[in-house]
Each structure stands twice: as structure tokens, then as C-alpha cells.
Amino acid sequence: MLKFDHLTLPVSDWERSRDWYVRHLGMKVEFEIPDRSTVAVQDDHDLTIFLQQSVSLVRSVGVALYFQVADVAASFRQVSALGVSVVHPPRKVFWGYGAELSDPDGYLIRLWDQRSMKERGES
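User: That's the sequence. What structure does it adopt?
Assistant: C-alpha cells below.
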């Protein structure tokens, strides 16, 4: 059995990133390691992202986190009302159909739902 369940993401400010992922994406704090400038945030399906502060923030072009939501349009309205950095609202894109946001360090956050992807994401 293979199950992807943890990911480490270097960030410039672990507390700011923690607050952003909790407030805007509804993730919960699993645990924190303040002396390592690290926090583990978890989604509703137990995927954990370690947000680890790094002095030399290395972002790879093309790094994106994909989050499946119940309704991409409703989720987009909800997070954009909170003032997140919006790349684009829900629309057809090369990866299917969905919205793109940007976290505090510029990582792409892609939101999608099964219904919209099926109805609008196919060529």
C-alpha cells in the first residue's frame, strides 16, 4: 500500500503561513515545533503539510498544491472574500477547471471540484 501523507514546504515565516493555511483553507494545526520554526497543518483527509521556515527559501517554478473542494465556485468566493491573493477565478486551464490562489510565499494553490472538472475541464 502506498499513501501520500506528508509534505514539507519551505516558507519565509512559519507562523504567518500557519495562520494563512488555517484561516483561508480551513486546515487545522496538528502540532508545532517552535524551536525548529515548523508547524504541521492537516487537511480533512489527514494529509499533513510541514510548513518549515527556511533562511534560504527555495521555490521551484511550477510548485502547486491542489485541493479538492465540494464546490469550487463557492470555495473561491469564500476565500477571495478573505482577501487572498487571487491568480484567477474558476475557469478552464491546462490542468482542467478550477481557481488559483497564491499563498504568502507565492506557492500556487489550485482549487477544484469533481463536478466542475468533469463538466468544464475536458477539452
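Helices lie at 14-25, 72-81, 114-120.
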